[in-house]
What does this fold into?
Amino acid sequence: MTESTIWINATPAEVWAVLADPRRYSDWVVGTTESFGVEGEWPDEGSALRWETGVGPARAGDRTHVLRCEPRRRLDLRAELGALGAVDVHVELVADGDGTTAKLAEEATAGAARVASPVVDAVNAVRTAFSLERLKEIVEP
It folds into this structure.
């Protein structure tokens, strides 16, 4: 499991507004280039969105499902990765002074994604930290 934390100079409601907008998913989630095709009402439990990654004609994609939703506090997702398996993603928001502490944790739960190695863990740690940095850049005025 990888985990990153960041302080964002915005309220939990302002951070949540980005998390709750399925069109913004690819803006903050490192590794996705486009998000589309929402099933249900994102981010209600059971809803899902489709996403793609890649460059030019070399594209792949799958779906991310909402497992748990506590508006302005917590969002648990399962990102399907095709033949690689699946990753559970946990986002927590906590009011912290004039801002919000955001925590992002990822855990491979199925398939080849569960193969752990120091290199994979290091790459995932950088990716989760960078995703939070992107979220912060979007939210902060």
